[in-house]
Amino acid sequence: MSQDTHRALWAELSDEEKRVLAIRPADPAEALAHFTGRLRFETDPYDVAADQRAGHGGFTVLDVRRRPAYDAEHVAGAVHFSHHDMTPEALAALDPDQVYVTYGWGPGCNGGIRGAAKLSAAGLRAKEMMGGLEYWKRGGYPTSGTATTGEPAESPAASTTGESGATASPAAAPAAAASATARAAADAAPALRNGCCI
Predict the structure, then answer these.
(1) Model pTM?
(2) What's the average pLDDT block by block, 10 residues per block, for the chain (198 residues)?
(3) Which residues contact 102 (CB under 8 A, 6 or more apart)?
(4) Residue 195 and which of 14, 17, 68, 122 are 20 to 30 A apart at CA?
């Protein structure tokens, strides 16, 4: 970057009189690349719930938090696969034709990002569900688990049918088996009481 460009950008960043337009908006082609790029990496609770209701397949929702948080409450139809348990061997068992939609607790939790990064590193397609379980619940979308029903959460190995009635990926059983190896000491961490996945 040239000194003149640097000075011009610094002047934009230092403009205290204008906030919205102090930094020049991108031209439409540049903005289109940016915004469509974000949509390739992210989805949101509204879109996931709408596709579940419509019975659209091709994606599997993965709750990447630790098992106790998942058991307490999770997105209805989500499969548990903690990002802590995503080893190359466990990820090799997943269906490469699926898109994996990961989520953590909420905006203050980067577990969904960690899970999506590990899936991507294994050559799988992934998107993060922005807002995680917190914003899923704010939207009023269905959840399952002991906190919502008073009954033990159903194991994803026992049922691979989501809320829409569509069958989840054959990866559900290997993912469930992999997640069963979660570290007991970490499961007792105080952060789990708040649903955090780290």
Answers:
(1) 0.73
(2) 84 80 91 97 98 97 97 97 97 97 96 98 98 98 83 36 38 47 38 50
(3) 62, 64, 83, 111, 112, 113, 115, 116, 119, 126, 127, 128, 129
(4) 122
